[in-house]
Amino acid sequence: MIKEKVAVVTGAARGIGHGIAKKLADDGCAIAIFDILNFDDVKDNIDAIKEKNIPVLYFQGDLTNNQDRNQFVTKIMEEYGRIDFLINNAGVAPKSRKDILETTEESYDFVMDINLKGTFFFTQKIANIMIEEKENSDLNIEAKIVNIASTSSYTSSPNRGEYCISKAGISMITKLYADRLAEYGINVYEVRPGIIYTDMTSVVKDKYDKLIEEGITPIKRWGHPEDIAKAVSVFCSGMLDFSTAEVINVDGGFHLRRL
């Protein structure tokens, strides 16, 4: 078993997940990344984490595939021997935005399988390992799970309904696992990003530039992956150990719903 705490981050080859992985590496964690992207396409991003002089494991796999999930976890335990933190970040938007009166089953299944089903069962897998770790008092592992949801957990966007439903589901996963795992001393948290500049949102940059300028958020700027990463770092720090199912909104104040 390695001496460093191990943070497992899904979808960390780029975007918000990459920002989270870099921050947790700065905090001294060994990193295990699960992403569907080919390693050669994201090598520079992975190398940027390795520059922190901590162990980094990259596993290319499909979150919707049970065999891939199991192989990834086996690899983690073989190389690191422990899991301290799980950050459920992986997620997709619809391939094309369509009104809910026109949404296809194909698009619905694509989004829900990755964002919700894959996350639920991957969390189940990791949670059982964390329970075993907690029951072995010699390990002294303070396991935590952090889910990356969205302001879309509660905000209606009828042109991407499947995404909103998936993120509302993530918020319920937070509550369910927080409730179930509390007896083992495993806390579960949630971060709800707002308008964050990533590849996913770059296609609607002009729209959000205008909305931000018009005051949709009290803090009038785009958020960045680093903003999300800071919130995750706080949850993993142990500073909030008497809180579980807690949510940090990283949205420039959007959740205020001001008039």
Cα-atom Rg, whole angstroms? 18 Å
Our count of helices gives: 8
Proportion of beta-strand residues: 5-15%
Into how many domains do the coordinates divide?
Answer: 1
Share of residues in helices: 40-55%
EC number: 1.1.1.100
Protein name: 3-oxoacyl-[acyl-carrier protein] reductase
GO molecular function: 3-oxoacyl-[acyl-carrier-protein] reductase (NADPH) activity
Family: Belongs to the short-chain dehydrogenases/reductases (SDR) family.
Protein architecture, described:
By secondary structure, this protein is α/β, with parallel strands linked by helices. It has one domain (6-198, 224-253): NAD(P)-binding Rossmann-like Domain (Rossmann fold, 3-Layer(aba) Sandwich). Helices cover 44% and strands 14% of the residues. The protein has helices at 15-26, 39-50, 66-79, 105-135, 161-181, 199-202, 205-213, 225-236; strands at residues 6-10, 30-35, 56-60, 85-88, 144-148, 187-193, 247-250. It has a seven-stranded parallel sheet, sandwiched between helices. β2, α2 and β3 form a beta-alpha-beta unit. The longest helix is centred in the middle third of the chain and has 31 residues, at 105-135.
Key words describing this protein structure:
259 residues, alpha/beta, Rossmann fold, seven-stranded parallel beta sheet, 44% helix, 14% strand, 3-oxoacyl-[acyl-carrier-protein] reductase (NADPH) activity, SDR_fam, Sc_DH/Rdtase_CS, oxidoreductase
